[in-house]
Every structure is written in structure tokens, then in C-alpha cells.
Amino acid sequence: MLTRREMLKKVGFGGMVLVGGSIMKLPLMKTQLAHASESEKWRQFAGSKIVFMSEDTPPTAAIKSKVKVFQDLTGIEIEIIQEHLDIVAEKVGIDVRGKKGAYACFYSQDKPIGAQFNAHAIDLRTFEKDPTLPKVPDGVGDDVWLSRFLDITGRFFGESKIAAYPYDNAVAVMMYRKDLFEKYSPQFEAEYGKPLVYTRDTTWKDVLDICKFFKKSKFSDVKYGIALQGREGWGGQLDYQRVSYANGMWLEWDFDDYFGSKKPGPCNWGDEQSIMTMTNYKALMKYAHPDSLVNDWSGANTAYITGLAAMQPQYGEFAAVVEDPNQSKASGGRTGYALCPKGDPSWIVGNGKAVNGTNCGIGGIAINRWADKDLQKAAYLFALWSSSHETQYMVMKDVGGTPTRKSVYELPDVKKAFYRETAPMKKLDKPVEIEKGVMVNEVPLMPNALTYAPILESIKKPQFVIGPKVIKFNEYAQIQTSEIHKCVSSLKSPEEACKAIKKKTDRLYRV
Amino acid sequence: MSRAELVSKSAKRERTILQTLAYIGLGIFFLWTTLPLLVMVLSSMKQMRDAFEIPAVGDWSGAFMKMFDFTPTLVHYHDLFVEKGFSTYIVNSVVAATTASVISVFLGALAAYGLSRGRIKGDKHLSFWILSSRMAPVVAVMVPLYAIFAGMGLLEPDRTRNMVALILAYTTFDLPFAVWFLRTFFEDIPLGVEEAAKLDGCSNLQAFVKVVLPLAVPGIAAALILCLVFSWNDYMFASIFGQQGAKTLPVATAELHSTVSIQWGRIMASGTILITPMIFLGVLVKKYMVQGMTSGAVRD
Amino acid sequence: MTYPIDETIQTPLPADQGASWFKGLFARIKGALSFDLWLMMPTIIVLAIITIYPFFWMLVMSFKEVAMDPGQEDIWIGLYNYIRLFDDESFLNGVKLLIWYFFLCLSIEMFLGLGVAILVNKAKFENFFTIIFIMPMMVAPIVVGYLFRFLYNVSFGWGFWFLKSSGLIAGDTILANAQPWLLPFMPSMAFMAVVMADVWEWTPLIMLIVLAGLKAVPQDQLEAARVDGAGPIRTFFEVTLPNIKGVLLIALVVRFMDNVRMIDLIYVLTKGGPADTTKILPFYLYNVSFKYFEFGRGAAIGFILLVFTIIVSMFLVNVVFKKKETTNNV
Questions:
Q1: Comparing C-alpha atoms, which of C73, C1, C55, C136 is closest to residue C303?
Q2: What is the pTM of this model?
């Protein structure tokens, strides 16, 4: 295939335009820069223009609203494009595969983008070692980030290169309607012999019982026990993984979770545990909100906030929407946040351990290898700034944040915001009626912080599952969820589905 | 009564029955078309929570209340125009669609004329190749087109360049269509017409412009309308080639589906904006389509 | 400046010389290419760039395994991309669903479009009805997708409510329903939902084109039929239908070409799910190209899809609507 340069020469189009923006530099020599003050180092690319392609989520929206701070600091004009994650993957993919480098930096979600385009991200250590570039006070070493997050977003396949800094974190927690649980506990207890509560020891089987209860009871204020996110692709892969990992710590492959592999080898699909989990997942889907099979995180969230589902395993950043009385019936203190459910002994084959299976999508910010060299450095400045302590703290207060630095979580006012009782609240101008006769007149200042307590606990082994970080991740996720759908819709038996996944996956990876 | 009268009486009865059925059919189709539009327009004026209210299954009487009992709000429209800058996107859509359609129909008319005269060797193959280029699946052509446009520097973050890229992209499917569509019209204009003009002393070009073209105007208008519709509606090309500089309405609307939530109210408002011009253009569209088709092109 | 005229040699004056040189050149070019080809030039050039290059790119790509990472080389694998498609469940499923899709969409749209056009033609308030009826096609398919996603939603969808309340559907969900609709070999409920959205949006296009064609039916033929004592039904089949054959063909081909290309509706409504039951071939192609970034495989699928479209179009034009050979048609 002709590279574009060759093609241009052949067709005779003139003028290669500067790619990815424009760059201007202070007329300082490299040696001068190395000894310049920090602020001068920050300003060395003043007047340049770069583009950041990112996900359309609150963390980025929050950064975007504060982007003037960055511009004042560095003089760099940055355009932040926000798209749905699928589209980010698509556009980044087209850009890097086309070797264009239009996005000097891009959002690198660990599996769908990071693993797929790892080779197109520059090793950030080259910038770290460069004396002409500034540093942030705490640095960017492994221990300033939450538990091994730098491994998750930055290190792939056993290479020592660091591909991206952790930029936002979406970790799954369980959100549930405390008020509904309290209300219907007596009835539930009468039927199932245990109270209707959600604790760290609640298992997926308990969840199934709760779902059966709600679906059968046909209450007027809630219809289903849980809203799941089975949509084809990454959403469904994560949804299923929470159940499969909780029950026996079952993994799709046996390589290191944190680093992944380019040649994963034969997968574990088709073994006894996988078939048992598939059967149980099908049962869960049967009693879950009926659109669970096509819902992704936003669809599930809508089902939860419109009061149709009593629980949802959801990513922490959605707490902001859940706590907004203008949109959500689950606001005003009605929602509790806890760890994801535990595995159930009766759902585990052999000696597997039961854990509160938690997974994630840790987003990193990566620099595009195809962008102009100087633009890369300018983008690096942005990566440093947006993942620094000050910025993450500033952004967190704005409804958006999901910080990745430990230091932010250790601040006293953040710690207070972990629990509703101590969290600083903001009074609304006018009380909002979320349901007939139920008024809400204050909202938490940092709603996402309500999820931090369970998140901080769940991002450690053994609960945490990071993988599978593999090349061709998107196709694998599609294969997996496709077969799960067929099983859930009774078009294939659990055993057939698992075996089909094994066959297709092994063929995908040339086993 | 004579046999003729009997026959025509039964014909008349047939006609009345059919007429009643016709109006019933029309009514059903009317409801089918308008009810979704009604939901869209009304939802665009409701607060999200009101928009989500539907009656219980089977509760037909409650339906009216739930549908119409709400406090209307224009907040979604406000957000679209103020926060999201939708007026720019509307302009982008209009400019790109119109320019591409005009270019396509212009070039297409020329080409269609050339093909219709039967004077070019292999014109059948040529016109077939032209039409088949429209059949290429969008996705298949996107990557090479991306490379071409990137090479031409059209994908830089600059509004004019992105607009050019967009217009070119639209032309890839408008032009073949225009050629194919207009060819049948030109074919129906008899060769004798230009011959007569040339005898009168016109050059080839003058014969084409002064005599043939005016006869084809209705067909050209019809082609223009269809090209406009296709370009206006496009999403795939616009999302990749329009980049950020030339965002069109469909792309902007799709962006309202953020990762965290689907902003239904704003999406409905956007849809309502899309159909509003139709109320004004509707009559024009019909008139030109009718004229276009009527101009003899489709008689057997 | 004039030169003395030498009677013996006929030399054209310089002023004329320049002009006639140009005229000569121009005439020579004009002669080489006929006027018609001249007119076609711009179109041919534009199309050549934007269709020939992509076409050959696609063809060449389809014979390679395109390298994922920079620095790797593309590997030439001949027909392997095509051969492996026969074992690819998703591909075969995609083809089957695509055939169902265009068969259902087109037949319903043509039938309805024709019917409504007849009803609207010469009805009272014809203009009013026309304006209302063509509104759906002015709404971009993406927006129609969202509208119907809203309508089909289990929690707050009026469409879902209506279908459940009138007993037309029994299940709990529409878009997540992978069960075959009505008969076991038919596609799923979700698929039918997508078809319904497509029909809602595009029937107006057929209606518009056919309506225009109806206006072209010669009045004298209609008069003759009426005098003959023919009822509306007989008139339709003997007079109207033959006259609008051409229009119907245009409508059919136009709609067919877009129906098998556009995936906007599926992209918004179901993304190919549930359980692959709405993953028509163009959508699978989209996944392979823009999700998995397997350009080689995508090119092979794209090529097959293109060939498929061309063959069916030719079939439609040549077999279904036999046109007289005297008119040079596609």
C-alpha cells in the first residue's frame, strides 16, 4: 500500500500541511530550556494548537470547562473533542492507521483503545527524561497513582514502555435503592427467610433472588430488581465479567491480568465453570430489566433513574446523574453505593474462590506517535496538567471527577464526601419533586465521591479484574457477547455458547 | 335501464365503496405518519422526567392525560442553540447539501446528456459503471477516501477545508445518482431537436444550452430535490469527513447521545427542527417532483 | 503592424495568425473528443478520483492481510480473505439477514408507497396530505433511529405502550427480543422493529416518486377507460399501471441502492444485536472495518457486497421490469 507521501508525490498534490495543529516555540535553545525555570518550561509552546480526542464523559467535560487554566499556564490552545467511546475508538483508529496524527493526544481506554493501538502511542518515558520539559510536583511514578493504575493504562504485553497516564477511572460499584429495600424487606423476608439488604457479602445468587422477588411482585413503584448492561461489545463483556470473575475468580485466559498478552494462547471458555456461569447469567438476565440485553451503561442508568430497576452495577462517574433530582428518582439519599456482589459457593465449580468481582475501564491519556514532534511535546504538557493533583482535585468538585491520584483521595474534604452523612451539600434554589410528594432540596457537592469508599476497596486483588488485555480486543468482545446473547435468548444452550466462543476465539488468535 | 347504464351504475357503486375505503386508508396512514412525529414534537417540549411518563399498559384513557398534560418548556431548544451552537450546524448542513447537490446535478446533467445521445462508444458500459459507483457500501469507500482527503489537507481543523471535504464526499453519491436519473430524461428529448437547432446555425454547445436544457429543467429540478434529500440525511460521511469544522445536523444530533446519558429532550428538539422547513418546502417539493416526472421521461 | 503583402506567398497576417493557431488547436482537441465526451469530462474526472481509486484500493486490500502495527508489513494472502468468509458464521448470517432486510423493506415500502400515492392522488386536500406524508423522509435516518429507539423503549416508549396495549406484541421488550417473529424461520422481533422504522421513514420517498408518475398518466387513456365503463380497479390495472412502470422502477432501484448501504438505523437502534439478529452484512462490514480495523477482511466483504448490489440491481432492471430495447437504459 502506498504511503500517503508516496501517493502525493505521484499524483502531484503540493503542500504537505502541518498535521495535527500548528506549533510555535519560544526561541530558546535546548540547553537553555533544560536550565530554565519551571514556568518557562511550561510556556515553551505558547501559541500552538493541539487537538485532544476524548470520551464524552463527565471527567472530560469537567476538564473542558477548566481548560482556560491550562491555556493561561502554557499559552497552548487545545481543542477537546468529545465523542461516544465507540466513536472515539473509530476515529482514533482511522487516524493512527492512516498515519495522520490529527489528534496529538487521545483518550486511551485500557482495553478497547489502549490494547488495540498500543503501538501507536509514544513511550511517555522519553518525555519524562527530557530535561526541557517540566515536571509536576508529585511526579508520575507508579506510587502516586491508585493501585497499579499506571500498569493498567500504561504497560502492555510485557513491554516496559509507558503508553498513557491514568486520566480517569470508571470502576464498577453496585448502586441500589436503599429506600425500596427497606420498604419491601418484610415481604421479602417472609418469602426468602432473609432480610432485604445489600452488604459486602451479598452474592450474585442473592441478587438473583431479589430480582425474582421484584419481578414477581409487580409493585407500582419499581418493576425489576436489576438493570444490567449486556450490550454487544465492551459493555456486555464487562457486565458478564463481573459475574464470571466473582464466581471462582475465573479468567478468560491465564496470562498476567495487568499486562495482557499479544499471543494469549487457548482460552478457558468451554470449561465447566464457564458453562455454569453462563447458565446463571442467563437466569439473571431472565429476571433483569428486559432491555438489559441491548442496554449499555447509559441505558441501564436510565432504567435505574426512572425507578424501573432497584439496583444497577454501574460505574462511579454515573453517581453525578443518579444524584441529580431533575433527572433521577433515585436521588435525595435514596441510593446506596457498595461493592459489587460476591460469588456464590453454589455457583462455583471446584475450589474456586468467591470474591466481590469488580472490573473497570481505566482511561489513560496517550500521545499520538504520528503527530508532529513538537506537538507531541505540547500534548505531553496537557497530559501532565490534566492528570496532576491540582487539576484532578479542581475538576472533582465540578460534578465530573474520577481522580486517579492517591493524593486526591487523602484530602480531608474529599474524605468527608465519601459518606452522605458527612458530605458537604449544596442547597438547591427550589426544591425538586422527584416523585409525588417527595421533595429534594439539596445535592451533594461532590456526588461521585459517594462511590469512592467502595471503589478504593475494590481496586485491589483479589476482587479486581483488569483484563483481558489482548490485541484484537474489540473483535473478541464482540464474539463473546454475541454468543452470550444467543444463549440468553435461548437460541443456543450455555454449553454450545461457551464452546462456540472457544472455537471462534482460538481461531481469532491462531491457536 | 340499458346495459350501459347498468354497467356504469355498478362501476359507480364500486367507486363509492372504494372511495370510502380510500379515505379510511388515508386516515390510517395519516395516523401512522403523524403519531411518531407528534411524540417527537411534544417530547421536545417536555422536561425529561415528563417525557418519560407513559400510562400503564392497556390504560387507553390515561394516554391522553399523560401525553398532553405537562408544563411545556423550551429549555431543550434553548440548549441546542445556545449551548450547542446548533445554528452553525444547520447552516453547515444546508450549505453542504445544497452545494453538493448543485454541483452534482450540474455535472450530472452534462454527463447524462453526453451519454443519452448514443454517440459515445461504450456509453452503456460507462453509465453502468457510473451507477454502480453509487452502490459501493459506504464503509468500504470511507478508508481510501479518508486517505485521499487527508492527503489533500482537507481534514485539518478548519471549517472551509472540512466543508470542502464534506461536499466532495456527498458528491461521491450524488453525482452518479444524478447522471443515472437524468439520463432517462435526456433520452426522451428527441435528437431532432438539436439537429434543428444546429441547422439554424447553433454550435453544439449552444444547441445544448439553448434548446435541450430548458426541456430538461423539470427533470433537473426533480434530481436536485432527491440529491438534496440524500445529502441532507447523511450521517456516515459527515461524521468522518466533516470532522469538527463542518459538523452537520445528523452528526450533531448523534452527539447528544453521550456516554453517560441519552439527551432525549434535545434529540427530539433536533428532530423537530429538521421537519419544520418541510412545512414550507413541502408544496415546492411536490410541485417540482411532479413536473420532473411528468416531463415525459417515464412514458413507455 | 502590417507587413507588405507578397502576392506570391499567401501568409496570414500575424494578428490572424495567433488567433487561428488557437482556433486550430482548439478545433483539433474538439475533433479528437466529441462534444459529448467534452461535456462528460468533469464528471468522469471527479468520479475517477473518488470511485476508481477507492475501488482498486478495496480490491487490492482484499488480497492482503493488512498489518495492524506500524512497522509491520502487509502480507499478501491471495483469496484467503474470501475463502474464510464461507466458514464465517457472522458473514453468512449477514448475507441471510440482508436478503430478508431488503426483501421486507422494499416490498412493504413499494406496496404502501404505491397505495398511498393512489389514495392521495386527486383526493381532497391532496397538497396537505402530501406535505404531511413526506415529513418522515426529511428527518435524517440517525434521528429517526433515535426517535424509534425512544418509541420502542420499555420504560418510556409510546410505541411499546401502544403495541402492548393493543395486544399486538406479547413479550417484555422489542429491541432486545431475539425470538423469531411469527414464524420460526423469520428474523427476530428486533429485526422487524428496524424494518418498521425503515418503512416509516422511506415509504414517503416511494410515494412521492409514484405520485409524480401518476400525474403523468395520459388523461385521454383515462377518459377512454371511463367511457368504456371500467371501474376504478380495472382502470388501474389496464391504464395506470402500465404507464407508471418506469416510475416504479426508478423508485425501486433508488430505494434498493440505499437500503443495502445504509446502516444508520441499525447503528442507533440495535448495533447489530440482539444475538446478531439485526447484523445485516453492511453492518458486519462496518464492524470489521471500523471496530476491528481488519482492513483486508473488510475490503473482501465490501467487494462482495458491491457485487451483490450490482447483480441484484441488474436483475431488477432487466428481468422484473422488461424495458424495450429501443431506449438505452441501464
A1: C55
A2: 0.84
Residues of chain C found within 8 Å of residue A5, distances taken between Cβ atoms: none
Same domain membership, residue B129 and residue B260: yes
- Kindly report, residue by residue over A361-385, the tens digit of the pLDDT: 899 999 999 888 889 999 999 999 9
Integer-rounded Cα radius of gyration of chain B:
25
Greatest distance between any 2 Cα atoms in chain C = 104
Residues C216 and C100 in one domain: yes
- Is residue C69 assigned to a domain? no
In a domain, B30, yes or no: yes
C10 and C139 in a single domain? The answer is: no
C-alpha cell at A18: 502541518
Contact residues on chain C for B55, CB-CB shorter than 8 A: 161
Residue type, B239: S
Expressed as residue numbers, the domain containing B17 is 3-74
Cβ of C135 within 8 Å of Cβ of B141? The answer is no
User: Looking at this predicted complex, what is its ipTM?
Assistant: 0.84
Read off the DSSP letter of residue A113: I
Return d(Cα C226, Cα C184) in angstroms, integer.
47
Among A residues 89-118, those touching chain C with beta carbons less than 8 Å apart: 89-90, 93-94, 97, 99, 116
**Residue that is last in its domain, among B34, B51, B74:** B74
Q: Does residue B299 belong to any structural domain of this protein?
A: no
Q: For residue C227, what are the domain limits? A: 87-327
C-alpha distances in Å from residue A54, one per residue of A29, A61, A80, A107:
33, 9, 7, 5
The span from the CA of A331 to the CA of A60, in Å, is: 23
Same domain for C147 and C17: no
Q: Are residues B100 and B235 in the same domain?
A: yes
The secondary structure of residue C317, as a DSSP letter, is I
B153 touches chain A (CB under 8 A): yes
Q: Is A413 on the interface with C (CB under 8 A)?
A: no
Assign residue C260 the CATH number of its domain. Answer: 1.10.3720.10
Residue B300 within any structural domain of the chain? no
- Any residues with CB less than 8 A from the CB of C24 and at least 6 apart, and which? none
Q: Name the pLDDT band for A175 (thresholds 50, 70, 90).
A: very high
Q: Do C291 and A485 make contact, defined as CB atoms within 8 angstroms?
A: no
Q: Please, are residues A163 and A126 in contact by the beta-carbon 8 Å criterion?
A: no
Chain B, 133 to 152: residues with Cβ < 8 Å from chain A are 143, 146-147, 150-152
- Give the type of residue at A65: S
Q: Does A8 touch chain B (CB under 8 A)?
A: yes
Tell me: do B288 and B216 sit in the same domain. Answer: yes
Neighbors of chain C by Cβ distance (3+ pairs < 8 Å):
A, B
Rounded mean pLDDT, C194-200: 95
pLDDT digits (tens, 9 = 90+) for B122-158: 777 777 777 777 787 777 778 778 777 877 877 777 7
CA-CA distance, C299 to C303, in Å (whole number)?
A: 6
A-to-B residue pairs, Cβ atoms closer than 8 angstroms: 78
End-to-end CA distance of chain A: 28
What angle, rounded to 10 degrees, do the helices at B86-116 and B159-187 form? 30
Q: A361: which strand partners?
A: A170
Query: What's the distance, Cα to Cα, between the start and end of chain B in Å?
Result: 39
**Of A117, A98, A100, nearest in space to A1 by CA:** A98
Exposed, middle or buried by CB within 10 Å (0-12, 13-18, 19+), for C27? exposed
Q: Are C21 and C159 found together in one domain?
A: no
**Are A232 and A293 within 8 A, CB to CB?**
no
| Number of separate domains in chain C | 2
Whether residues B133 and B276 share a domain: the answer is yes
Residue B27 lies inside a defined structural domain of this protein = yes
* Residue-wise burial string across B48-80, b where 16 or more C-beta atoms lie within 10 A, e elsewhere: bbbbbebbeeeeeeebeebbeebeeeeebbebb
A242-263 exposure pattern, b = at least 16 Cβ within 10 A, e = fewer: bbbbbbbbbbbbebebbbbbbe
